[in-house]
Amino acid sequence: MLLRRSLAQCNKEGYESHATNAVSLFLVFSCGLLSSLVLVSLFGGNFLPTKEQLTARLDHSFESVPHFDEALVQVVTESYPYEYQERSRKTGDEVINRSQNRALQTPFHLGFNLELDDEPIDSEKKQRFSSVPTTELIRLEKHKSSKVSTENKAEAQASLHAALDMWERRKLEKAMKLFQHAMLLDPKEPDILTRYGEFLEEYEYDIIGADHLYAKALHSSPSHSKALQNRERTLPLVDELDKSRLLKLDRLRDELMRISDANHALRRIKKEAYFHYIYHTAGIEGNTMTLAQTRSILETRMAVPGKSILEHNEILGLDAALKFINQTLLHRIGQVTLHDILQIHQKVMGYADPDQCGQIRTTQVYVGSHIPPAAYEVREMLQDMVDWLNSEDALRLHPVEYASLAHYKLVYIHPFYDGNGRTARLLMNWFLMQSGYPPVMIRKQERMRYYETLENANEGDVRPFIRFIAECTEQTLNVYLWATREASGEILGSALEKDNGRTIIMGG
To answer: Can you tell me the distance from the alpha carbon of 151 to that of 170, in angstroms, rounded to the nearest whole number?
Structure first.
């Protein structure tokens, strides 16, 4: 049965056209048989989770976790500003003080190690795929004008007045659509932002969304009296909600840390999540490799037919960078340095662009509507960022806040010609792994939301981006905990996998 399943999988992935892969099929079958015997001995004959079931559950779990804002719908009655204070967090027998140096604050046994094979990072087996096709390193995009035409402004004001009329007449759905239409026409008009925020508070009880709109209104008009008044009311409530969410993440992290590193289910989910992480973080940047193809490249180092050399080398670069973090940076004592960031980028782009990897850009680049700093400012801004990462103020932050802000700052500076997003996500995960969190997966399906929250940060409010990362962190932790709970004796049942719009039932 296992052999038939292996043959069917190989036929599906196109192995039948490669006679030389017969040996690979034999090895896959042999390893699968050995793994099956181990799992049977561990869990009994009635429970044998397959790779497909675990992969399906990874996808399904991420889709089933409630959105961040929805999970935080609660009433907070006390109104006081949330100020970051020096906090000590007890984990096991160790007390971690966040005012200390971040690289020293977490003992090695508290860091999250991926338990990867201890093979050299730059072994001969990891040769890059041929040569990279000639590509334009700087993708110039026309800067989107933020100026709103007179006609759009007039129509936006008309929509605002109509929305207020519908709101007064309690036709709330129509009012919602009119507010949204006004926002599309004139997205930075403080009156529209403020009144829409008030509507969200009353109609949807969305304090977080309303507070974000008030913040945007004040970014456009700092002296807007109504926005200031509303923000003074909502800010303490939102800060308390954010604080509550971060404490929940710590509880989930601590639960995961109590599981022994020798736990076979934990080791297996680490491996599966590793493939998923590389697949998703490459996919966010437009890489078209499927999960199965990504796994094949990482396990066999063989080329996938029909895919570009560049896409192959992007996968290898992410693999090298994540292994470098896991085997080197995670266990290094000392402060964060600019050299660390350049080394991560060197690994990320080492296969795809050996000439520019680890090199700070020397010309101006454009990223959609965002114009990054001029080239002559980049090195100084990077050093300022590193100084901030090592500052006491930064080290007092919650690890998810700290890692999210590091992620955003690097993306904003955009110090490289290519690979900025991948490097920023890896930098973020290095800091999270130091604090005992697993590498957080941002799914490629969340790409638009990811970019939207980054854009919100560019407009003056970084909190939606931190909340987005917190949501992804919770999803990742829940997947790890689910996998270990299921392997502990709970019934797996059927898992759902979405494939190109179809729902496939994977039997237990």
So the answer is: 28
Query: At residue 367, what are phi and psi to the nearest 5 degrees?
Result: -125, 90
Question: Which residues are annotated as part of the binding site for ATP?
Answer: 367-370, 418-425, 450-451, 458
Q: Which residues, listed in sequence order, are joined to residue 498 by a DSSP beta bridge?
A: 503
Question: Residues annotated in the binding site, as ranges?
Answer: 367-370, 418-425, 450-451, 458
Angle, helices 463-487 vs 207-220, to 10°: value is 150
Just list the catalytic residues: 414
Burial class for 285, CB neighbours closer than 10 Å (0-12, 13-18, 19+) = middle
> Any idea which residue has 């101006």 for tokens?
364
Nearest Cα residue to 389 out of 355, 419, 413, 360: 413
Q: How many CB atoms lie within 10 A of CB 78?
A: 7
Q: How is residue 35 written in tokens?
A: 């793994």
pLDDT tens string 177-236: 999 999 999 999 999 999 999 999 998 899 999 999 999 999 999 999 999 999 999 999
Name the residue ranges covered by the structural domains of the chain: 2-48, 95-142+239-498
pLDDT tens-digit readout, 431-478: 999 999 999 999 999 999 999 999 999 888 999 999 999 999 999 999
Closest CA to 363 of 409, 424, 412, 415: 415
Q: What is the pTM of this model?
A: 0.71
* CATH architecture of the region 95-142+239-498: Orthogonal Bundle (1.10)
Write phi, then psi, for 506 (nearest 5 degrees): -100, 110
pLDDT of residue 111: 74
Task: Give the model confidence (pLDDT) of 252-265 as tens digits.
Answer: 999 999 999 889 99
Alpha carbons 29 and 27: distance in angstroms, whole number: 5
